Amino acid sequence: MSLNWLAMDARLADIARKIDHGDRLDADDGALLFDTPDLWTLGELANRVRRAKHGDAAYYNVNQHLNYSNVCLLSCRFCEFQRKPGQAGAYEFSIEQIAQKGRDAQARGATEMHIVGGLHPKLSFDYYLEMLRTLKTEAPKLHLKAFTAVEIVHLARVSKQALRKDFAGGVKVVLEALRDAGLDSLPGGGAEVFDDRVHDEAWRGKIRSDEWLTVHRVAHEVGLFTNATMLYGHIETRENRVQHLLKLRDEQDHALQNELPGRFQCVIPLPFFPDGSALQHLPGPSGLENLRTLAVARLMLDNIEHVKAFWIMQTLPMAQVMLDWGADDVDGTVVWYDITKVGGAGTHQEVTIDTMRRTIREAGYRPVERDTLYRPVVRDGAKWSVHHASDTTADRVYILK
Ligand code: V47
């Protein structure tokens, strides 16, 4: 019996050579990686890069997500989370409710609070500053990873900074005020896919890619580390995905070449979930498409250290497979999550530390608890400390390498 049909796609040989030599892949390589039927070689290449960077480590953190309000001025067609003011199910948390969640998370031993919400028409800039200040007072051990670039631009409007001609200058004022109130880093949400056609069809009214990238650039300039997402599997093309990854790579080049005090730490490809959204007639990406997109992200983004398989959207078994396909991180214990509820989940979506570690071990990897800045954490129950005592920028860079 001939096994020729199992042979490697010969077109991948050049890409494999580039990867072995540490050469950068270009847009044509990205297109080929999306086109090849040879998924095994693609996965193997991504795994090779992942193992060269992180060995058998698989990172997770003990975190808690907080979605402070689902009220949103936008009507993104992929979103099942947003509600209009007064609509059934619309909510916003008071500062005291948020403080209680912070105290609970800290008592549980969480290292991070990941905070995002809709673009609320009524909440003042002070609400957001107060939220951060209160959490820093009530739960000072929590790293506050808060507000997507979309919320930051909304806050620039709310605080009238967006009236300035200089968009980046207004964003800077807002980010500095939030940082001084306790903001520690920015999550990667709201990037969706960097393409104006897709933007206008599916999330008109939201900031465009140039604004999203400007917010992250300014964040890096003012010393904040950030993440980046890519929402795929809806009305975008695979070429759009390649362009999205290249734009992220260029932005990271800018941060690294200019030695900015912040940069992207992690990229998170997010598979579109149609249920409950205005695009629910679409099928959503298949498991194989998820693996392919993850592997391409790992291979194209040679300058971003970490790639996350967000288990909430991928499921735990899929996240296990993804550790072999380029991912080195699975996010954290989460506890509460309101934005997507896969397979009929409610807002309580939690894994315990034991389950997280067992899941990673069963996939053949070594579980490493990290803090938000990817420093190893030493834990004894709810008590924890960062393995490297000092918190200098030099230390961060050391751990990132
Ligand atoms: O920005 C919304 C996406 C994002 C749907 O920074 C959807 O560490 C799929 O950004 N199907 C929020 N995706 C989640 C996010 C995130 C998650 C985990 C870790 C980090 C990080 C960031 O969720 C939104 C949007 O792109 N989203 N609706 C949906 N129906």
The average pLDDT is: 93
Query: In percent, how much strand structure appears in the residues?
Result: 15-25%
Helix content: 40-55%
C-alpha-based Rg, rounded: 20 Å
The main sheet comes to:
4 strands, parallel
Q: Looking at the structure, what is the overall shape?
A: globular
Low-confidence stretches: 391-401
Bound ligands, named by name, code or SMILES: ligand V47
In CATH terms, what is the architecture?
A: Alpha-Beta Barrel
The CATH topology? TIM Barrel
- The N- to C-terminal Cα distance equals 47 Å
Q: From N to C, what is the helix and strand string?
A: HHHEEHEHEHHEHHEHEHEHHEEEHEEEH
Alpha-beta content class: alpha/beta
Assign the CATH class: Alpha Beta
Query: Can you count the helices?
Result: 15
What is the tally of beta strands?
14
CATH homologous superfamily caption? Aldolase class I
In spatial order, strands of the major sheet run: 5-6-7-8
| Overall tally of domains | 1
Brief overview:
The protein has 401 residues and is an alpha/beta fold. It contains 15 helices and 14 strands.
List keywords for this structure.
three-stranded parallel beta sheet; 401 residues; binds ligand V47; 15 helices; alpha/beta; TIM Barrel; four-stranded parallel beta sheet
